[in-house]
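Project channel, design review

CF: Before we commit to the Ramlibacter ginsenosidimutans constructs, I'd like one complete example in the thread so the newer folks can see what an input/output pair looks like. Taking Aspartate carbamoyltransferase.
RD: sounds good, go ahead.
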Amino acid sequence: MPHPSPTASLPARTLRLLAAAAVLACSFAAPAQTVQEHVHGHGHEVMPFDLGKTVHIFRMTEDGGIQQVVVRGDAADPEQVRMIQHHLALEASDFQQGNFADPGHLHGPAMPGLRELEQGARRMQITYRPLPNGGEIRFRAKDIKLVTAVHRWFGAQLSEHGADARSE
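CF: and here is what came back for Aspartate carbamoyltransferase:
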């Protein structure tokens, strides 16, 4: 014989009060983390520099695009510049080999353009260049599908980095 529900013996009024309390408690639950909050909060897992002291700049070009990371403001922080340059030099080398593990880790494997870039990296020219206040990675391709993948990937990063990124 089945056991009665633990709430079966409670009066209807008590059940209604419990249900109302549950709804009220849920309305005070912490809101889900936004993508921008996730990227800003977890960026240190793949980027050694401080996202609050730097900005990502994305420029789409006819043959791909240029991604820069620079120190915010006029006075370049030498330690941040060193970390940016080291990181971007390594990333450019990895990207040229089709290794986009860092952006995949931070933004997720379904990030727009990521799969196409991983598969087509050897058909692209991906180069690093230091800048006085940071560094840049340039992506060049002759295949319009790869150019489109770079543009989609840049668009996703612009959206997901939020206030830590801008386009030019």
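RD: helpful, thanks. The mean pLDDT is 80.
CF: The chain has one domain: 35-167.
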